[in-house]
Each structure stands twice: as structure tokens, then as C-alpha cells.
Amino acid sequence: MNAPDERAARLRAVIAELSAVLPAHALLWQREDTVPYECDGLTAYRQQPLAVALPENDAQVAAVLQACHRLQVPVVARGAGTGLSGGALPHALGVTLSLAKFNQILSIDPLAQTAVAQCGVRNLAISEAAAPHGLYYAPDPSSQIACTIGGNVAENSGGVHCLKYGLTLHNVLRVKGFLADGTPVEFGSEALDVPGLDLLSVMIGSEGMLAVVTEVTVRLIPKPRLARCIMA
Question: Cα(161)–Cα(201) distance, rounded to whole angstroms?
Fold first, then answer.
């Protein structure tokens, strides 16, 4: 079977499986619909995915991963697509799993100084939501107005504030998500320490190779009382 025939056959199988677990508007495979997903911020490299899945809840994410696992179809998770490392570059015979619809901040605890957000929440949106409590989320990559917390976890993003407050790794307490076969997993805890191996540190920065993250608990810090320019 030549490459075009293999792609067509795989596309038919993928659409048949995913159509059973996703609503029609959450599955894209026509060329004009998948072009926007052909690259991330590293535009020098482009590849159209076989299809794009846009799940709206955890159950749909698990179902997509289970279906692709059965078909042995690669899956590439995608956040806002602002990364410059090619982490969201599609696979030619794979499915791009867009998590853009996971955009809700689930809770903010001013006393514990934590926030729980879905993976598609923008980095800056967490600080905006925490601002009324005098708190903010420290890691501030240059794309913080658009990049998502899930993408930050995948890339272990930093920013200017990382010189004092550390990278994403040092400001995330817990993540929830799914393995490649759709098995739900959770790494880390809101407690000060967790028994066993520190798998959260392995997860953060793994670029989606180990699991698809859908929920993140972050540490918030008090906003500085004073800011002054020392040298201009």
C-alpha cells in the first residue's frame, strides 16, 4: 500500500472510531479545517495532521486516547500552539488532540494560596483571577497572554520571574490527566510532601510524551507590596 492509500485508509478508520465518541463539531479532518493546526510557534516546520479532535471533557479525552490506542494511531496534544520548540507539531498519520476547550479556572483558595485550573486556561488568566486576593502566578513566559497552563507544564516554561521564583516545575503542586491508553492518572499533591517517587517532576517538561494533562493545581504567591526601578 502506497503512502496516499495508507493515509486514506487510516483516516477512514480514525473518523469511524472518533465519530462514535465525539460530537460532529469536535472532529475535524477536511484540509481547510486542519491547516490552522499544522504548526505551533515554530512555523519553519509544518505538517498537516490526519485529523483534529477537540474534546470538551475528561470522558471525551479518555475515549479519544482509547480509540487511537486501539488503532495504533499517534496522538499529539496541543494547547494554544505558542511554543517555539515544535512540541505541538502534528504527526502526518496521527491525531492532534486540541485541549483549547478546557478553559475553566475551577477554584482559587486564597488561604492555601493555590488555584486549580483546566489545562487550556491562559497563564495570565490565573493571575488575573487571583488578583482580587492579592495573589498571582509567578512563571511568566513571554507568551503568557496566550499560552496555556497545560502547555507550560509540558514545556516547563519560565519567564523573567523564574530567576526568583523558579520554573513551572517549582510552582505546580499537582496534575491530573490520562496515559496514552486513556488510563486516568494523578501526580503530586497539595500537601507539602508526597510519599514515593517524585513523578510530578518527571511529568513537567516531558512535552506530552508521558501523559495528556487536563487539570493543574498551581501555587500562588502574594503580589509585591512595592515595585521600583533601580536602573533604567
Answer: 20
Domains, the chain, in order of start with CATH, read: 4-98 (3.30.43.10), 105-222 (3.30.465.10)
Q: What confidence tens digit (pLDDT) does each residue in 7-32 have?
A: 899 999 999 999 999 999 999 999 99
pTM here is 0.91
Q: For 110-130, what is each residue's pLDDT tens digit?
A: 999 999 999 999 999 999 999
Provide CB contacts within 8 A for 184, sequence distance 6+. Answer: 58, 62, 176, 177, 178
Distances (CA, A) of 58 to 94, 110, 113, 140, 215: 20, 26, 26, 27, 10
